[in-house]
Design goal:
By secondary structure, the chain is of the alpha/beta class. It contains seven helices and seven strands; from the N terminus they run H-H-H-H-E-H-E-H-E-E-H-E-E-E.
């Protein structure tokens, strides 16, 4: 939690309590249904919570905006973002039922009213969203096929972030992103921990 509080200073008491509760909740549910590797649980706040919140350093979601988290796994990046932006609506989807059960249990324990979670393949999700978020579930060209028709049209001026995909990915992405209009934000510019040195937030406009 010290890492979170170092970078996010204006949290309410409720947000701090919700974020503090995450470790205990995931310790419990991970013992029942393994959704996070044991090694990563030793660095839970850095590798899962803070990594998810890197998206918030690129864009602050607005009240009533709708965000779709594809391949959420145990609820990342969706749950930390939903805590940070309580007036934004989040739909978290994953094709694996046991992972969605964990998401539902965690969101219920935290009383997160702005989160819905459904077992579904990305291609089957209905509706139109302001943003799609995800954390390295597949290569970007394939991910774009999953999100086709799901994003509202961007109305913002060129060069601003206004509707689209915010994707957490690491490593050399030049080949993967070749020919795809995007902006890349190195997470190391926001967070000083070594874990983030090669990681990025990739924005692809709708």
């Amino acid at each position: 939690m010290e890492q979170i509080l170092k970078y996010f200073k204006g949290l309410t008491k409720k947000q701090v309590e919700q974020l503090e509760s995450l470790q205990e909740l995931y310790d419990y549910w991970n013992a029942q249904i393994n959704v996070i590797s044991r090694k990563d649980m030793d660095h839970f706040y850095e590798r899962h919570v803070l990594h998810s919140l890197a998206i918030a350093q690129v864009y602050s979601f607005k009240p009533a905006e709708q965000v779709l988290d594809i391949g959420t796994g145990g609820g990342f990046p969706g749950i930390p973002l939903a805590i940070l932006f309580p007036e934004t609506e989040f739909l978290l989807v994953d094709s694996i039922a046991k992972k969605i059960k964990v998401v539902q249990e965690v969101t219920s324990a935290l009383s997160l009213k702005n989160v819905s979670a459904h077992q579904a393949r990305a291609e089957k999700v209905k509706g139109h969203y302001d943003f799609v978020v995800s954390r390295a579930v597949t290569q970007m060209p394939r991910f774009l096929t999953w999100t086709r028709g799901k994003l509202k049209k961007s109305k913002g001026p060129t060069g601003t972030i206004s509707k689209g995909i915010l994707y957490l990915k690491g490593g050399d992405l030049d080949e993967e992103l070749k020919g795809i209009p995007h902006r890349s934000f190195p997470i190391g510019d926001f967070f000083e921990e070594e874990f983030f040195e090669t990681k990025k937030v990739i924005y692809v406009p709708s």
